[in-house]
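Data deposition worksheet. Section B asks for the primary sequence of the deposited chain exactly as it was used as input, without tags or linkers unless they were present during the calculation. Section C holds the resulting structure in token form. Section D is free text for depositor observations; keep each observation to a single sentence. Incomplete worksheets are returned to the depositor.
Section A, Depositor: J.P.
Section B:
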Amino acid sequence: MTVPSFEHVVSVSTASKQGISRIVADAENGASVVIERHGKPAAVVVAAKRMELMLEQEENLRLAALVLARAATDDGQRTTLDEAIEAFGYSRAELEAELDSESTAI
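Section C:
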């Protein structure tokens, strides 16, 4: 895992000595605190507002990717429900009859 450039990188033992209050205060003041275990990133402490923003941006990126994928694959042709049913070898009447027989059997 590649760690971006963070202002504060501390080991678990250093974080333990500093205490959670110090780490939380640093995060509230805008710092991202990376906590390493055995020289590798284990956790990142960030302010709650920043995390909210990151999650919102992640969702926006997910939606943008979906829009782009749909735009790239959309040929403009639309299919009705009846056409889709027929593509599977059924008719609407057959399916409705089957549903009616199941509901009367109960």
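Section D:
The radius of gyration is 27 Å.
The mean pLDDT is 90.
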